[in-house]
Design a protein that fits this description.
By secondary structure, the chain is an alpha+beta fold. It folds into three domains: 4-41 and 224-300 and 406-462, FAD/NAD(P)-binding domain (3-Layer(bba) Sandwich), CATH 3.50.50.60; 60-86 and 302-404, Protoporphyrinogen oxidase, mitochondrial, domain 2 (Polyamine Oxidase, Chain A, domain 2), CATH 3.90.660.20; 104-204, protoporphyrinogen ix oxidase, domain 3, CATH 1.10.3110.10. The chain is built from 17 helices and 22 strands. Helix 1 (12-24) runs parallel beside helix 10, helix 11 (279-285) packs antiparallel against helix 12 and helix 12 packs antiparallel against helix 15.
C-alpha cells in the first residue's frame, strides 16, 4: 500500500515542501496539495496590467543566499534569472527625496560618512549618532524591540527616517513592535558584548556570498509567477484548490483532514502532513493534534497590505529603484517601486510603478475600495515624485494577513512550536511565520519540513 503525504497550503513554502517531498519520498508515494485559494503560489503571482506583466506580490529575492537561485536553476529557468538595473533608493523626509545611505543594516547605520553624505538626518540627529559611537553601549542580553533599542542609542530620527521605513517594507510592521532577535539576528548576536550600535551593525552586515559588486537581489524575467509554474510542473501531485482544510486529527495509522464546507465535508486520509498555512490558520487546524503548538501559533499576528500597480505613459522619474517614506510624512503610501527603472525587461514604452499601502494595525485604511486606493496612490506618488497626470491602467492586489509580525520573544516562540510539532510523528509546519519572510527563507522552511516528514516515513517503514 502506497504512502500518502498531504501539504496544506500552496504558497511558495508549501510548493517547496511538495517539490522536496516528490524528490525524496519513497517511490510510489502519493502527494496531494490542498488549498482554499483558487490558485497556487500565494504571494507569488504575476499578471498583466495595461498589457505589461508585473508581479502582484513579491517581485524579487536575495541572490546571495542559495535557496531561491538554486531552485530557479533546478527548474530550468536559470537563463531567465534577471537582476535589478539599480537598487539605489531614496527616502522621503520633510517633503524631499534623500538618497538612502549605504552601509546600513535594515536602516541601522554602520557607516557614519555615508550617513552624513546622505543628509537623511538633521544636523542634530547626525550629531546624536556620532556621539553614540564614542563609547561602547551596554550588552543587550534580552530580546527587545528594534525601535526601543535604536531610539535609546541613536535617537528618534534614525527610527523614523531609516529603520521604520525599511522594516515597513520587509514586514509591513513597525520598529516599536518588531523583535531585534527575530528581524536582525546577527545584530542581536553582536550586541551580546558591550559595543556601540554603529560598530555592531558594521560587524553584522552580511557579506554578499558571490563577492563584492555582485547583485544582491534577483528575479525571474517573466515574473515570480514563473517560479510557481515551474514547481507545479515538477511536483506531480493531486492539486485540489478552493478546498480549505478545517481540521487535522490523528488516526491509528496517520491523520485525517477535514476540508470543505461544514454541511458537505471532504475527508482526506494521510500518512504524513505538512501544514504550510499562515500561523493563525495553522493554529486552528492543529488544535486537536498539538494543542500547545496551536496556542502558540494563534498568538502570531499578521499585517495586511495592498500593492497598487500603476501604468503611465512614458515619463521621467527621480533616479533610482524607488523610494521609502519616513513615518513623519504621514502618508498612506509607505513605499514606491519604480518598476520600469528597476527592471530592464519591462516594456520601455510605459512608466510602471508599484505603491505599497498598509502596515500592521492599518486594516481600516485597506477597507477602501480599489478605485479609492488607486486614487490615494496616484495622489501620494504625485506629491512624492512630481509625476503628474493619470495612469492609463491600474491594478490593486490585496494581501490580507500577508506578513507575520515577529514580536519580542518570537524566536523562543518558534522554538517551542517546533518542539511541540516534532513530538507528533509525521507532522511538520512551514512558512513565513517561523524564521524569515523572504522567498529563500520560505523555500528553506518548506525543505526543512519535507526533510522531517521523509525521515519519519523512512523510520516508520524500517521500525
Amino acid at each position: 500500500m502506497s504512502l500518502h503525504v498531504v501539504v496544506v497550503g500552496g504558497g511558495i513554502a508549501g510548493l517547496a515542501a511538495a517539490y522536496a517531498l516528490r524528490r525524496d519520498c519513497p517511490p510510489g508515494t502519493r502527494l496531494s496539495i490542498l488549498d482554499g485559494a483558487r490558485g497556487l503560489g500565494g504571494k507569488l503571482r504575476t499578471s498583466a496590467v495595461g498589457g505589461v506583466l508585473v508581479d502582484e506580490g513579491a517581485e524579487m529575492f536575495l541572490a546571495g543566499v542559495p535557496e531561491a537561485v538554486d531552485l530557479v536553476r533546478a527548474l530550468g529557468l536559470g537563463a531567465d534569472l534577471t537582476f535589478p538595473t539599480t537598487t539605489q533608493a531614496s527616502v522621503a523626509v520633510d517633503g524631499v527625496l534623500r538618497r538612502l545611505p549605504a552601509g546600513t543594516l535594515l536602516g541601522v547605520p554602520a557607516d557614519i560618512a555615508a550617513l552624513a553624505e546622505s543628509q537623511v538626518l538633521s544636523p542634530a540627529g547626525l550629531a546624536r549618532v556620532i556621539e553614540a559611537t564614542t563609547g561602547p553601549g551596554d550588552a543587550v542580553l534580552a530580546d527587545v524591540t528594534v525601535g526601543d533599542l535604536v531610539r535609546r542609542r541613536l535617537g528618534p530620527e534614525v527610527v523614523e527616517r531609516l529603520v521604520d521605513p525599511l522594516l515597513g517594507g520587509v514586514y509591513a510592521g513597525r520598529a516599536d513592535t518588531l523583535s531585534l532577535r527575530a528581524t536582525m539576528p546577527a545584530l542581536a548576536a553582536a550586541l551580546r558584548t558591550p559595543r556601540s550600535l554603529v560598530a555592531a551593525a558594521g560587524e553584522a552586515r552580511p557579506t554578499p556570498a558571490a563577492g563584492p559588486g555582485q547583485p544582491v537581489f534577483a528575479s525571474v524575467r517573466q515574473g515570480l509567477g514563473a517560479l510557481v509554474d515551474g514547481l507545479v510542473a515538477r511536483i506531480d501531485a493531486d492539486i485540489r484548490l478552493s478546498l480549505p482544510v478545517r481540521e487535522v486529527r490523528r488516526t491509528g495509522t496517520g491523520f485525517r483532514l477535514t476540508a470543505g464546507p461544514v454541511p458537505a465535508p471532504t475527508y482526506v486520509d494521510a500518512d504524513a502532513v505538512v501544514v504550510a498555512a499562515p500561523a493563525p490558520a495553522a493554529g486552528r487546524l492543529l488544535r486537536e493534534v498539538t494543542p500547545g503548538a496551536a496556542a502558540l501559533l494563534s498568538g502570531i499576528e499578521y499585517a495586511s497590505v495592498a500593492i497598487v500597480t500603476l501604468v503611465y505613459p512614458a515619463a521621467a522619474l527621480p533616479p533610482g529603484s524607488g523610494l521609502l517614506v519616513a513615518t513623519t510624512e504621514h502618508r498612506a503610501v509607505k513605499a514606491v517601486t519604480f518598476s520600469s527603472q528597476k527592471w530592464a525587461d519591462l516594456d520601455g514604452d510605459h512608466t510602471v510603478l508599484r505603491a505599497s499601502i498598509g502596515r500592521h494595525g492599518e486594516e481600516a485604511l485597506l477597507q477602501r475600495d480599489d478605485h479609492e486606493l488607486s486614487a490615494i496612490a496616484v495622489r501620494d506618488i504625485a506629491a512624492l515624485t512630481g509625476l503628474r497626470g493619470l495612469p492609463i491602467a491600474s491594478r490593486v492586489s490585496r494581501w490580507g494577513g500577508a506578513l507575520p509580525q515577529y514580536a519580542v520573544g518570537h524566536v523562543d516562540r518558534v522554538q517551542r512550536i517546533e518542539t511541540e510539532v516534532a513530538s507528533v510523528p509525521g507532522l511538520a509546519v512551514a512558512g513565513a511565520a517561523y524564521s524569515g519572510v523572504g522567498v529563500p527563507a520560505c523555500i528553506r522552511s518548506g525543505y526543512t519540513a519535507a526533510a522531517h516528514v521523509v525521515a519519519g516515513l523512512r523510520e516508520s517503514r524500517h521500525g
